[in-house]
Amino acid sequence: MNVKKISAANVPVEAIPTLLDQEKIAFQPIETVNWPEYPYQPSVQFRVAHTGDALLLHFKVREASVRAVATADNGRVWEDSCVEFFSVPAGDGVYYNLECNCAGTLLVGGGADRKDRQRASQEVLDRVQRWASLGRQPFDERIGECHWEVALVVPVSTFFLHRLDTLSGCQIRANFYKCGDLLQTPHFLSWNPIKLEQPNFHCPEFFGLLHFE
Fold first, then answer.
1. How far apart are alpha carbons 142 and 211 in whole angstroms?
2. What tens digit of pLDDT does each residue of 124-155 get?
3. For a tag site, which of 1, 85, 144, 185 has the least CB within 10 Å?
């Protein structure tokens, strides 16, 4: 997938969806049900662009219930209504998991495998700008169909185990996910298919490829 380079100078994070509309950045579905025992398929779309020194992410979700219980960054956001971006920004096998619940609460980790993860510092996390259509406060699960969106401006400093100068011209292996481990109907959707027997997003061997202009 090609990732367009655009200018977002002086654009607040809440205006990122409008900017991506203006730049005609198309949405892509997150719709692969990899594990038949978890058949529920909420409607999930994402789109992505970059500015050279930052990644611009926008997710849109429609699902049967919504949850944002995690109260602080690097908490258990995957148990909430959660969208995720996993990526390998360099050629050394280290991958990052960026996970964001519907209230814009983040978890960012890095490492070479699932068991050996380092969490980003709060200083790193605070540099990620966030907008959430449902607001930024935690809440218990709300039953009933809900539409929500999040937008993120993710600077290259978020890849805290590397020193990346720019995304321009890079080819980065990545996958996009939607999950909700403790929702009334748990689910585990991916952009690129995952050929494993049990739910597991920590699998760089199944990442797709992003081409950054």
1. 38
2. 999 999 999 999 999 999 999 999 999 999 99
3. 144
Structure tokens at 174: 């990545």
34-55 pLDDT, tens per residue? Answer: 999 999 999 999 999 999 999 9
Residue among 28, 46, 47, 40 at smallest CA distance from 179: 40
Of the candidates 127, 180, 134, the residue with the CA atom closest to the CA atom of residue 158:
127
Strand partners, 60: 45, 149
- Give CA–CA dist 145/170, Å, rounded: 38
Q: Which pLDDT score is estimated for 91?
A: 86
| Rounded-to-integer distance, Cα 38 and Cα 42, Å | 11
What distance in Å separates the CA atoms of residue 83 and residue 98, rounded to the nearest whole number?
A: 9
Cα–Cα dist 137/172, whole Å: 33
Q: What is the pTM of this model?
A: 0.97
- Nearest CA among 110, 98, 88 for reference residue 170: 88
Strand bridging mode 129-132 / 95-101? unpaired
Which of these, 133, 158, 111, lies nearest to 61 by C-alpha position? 133
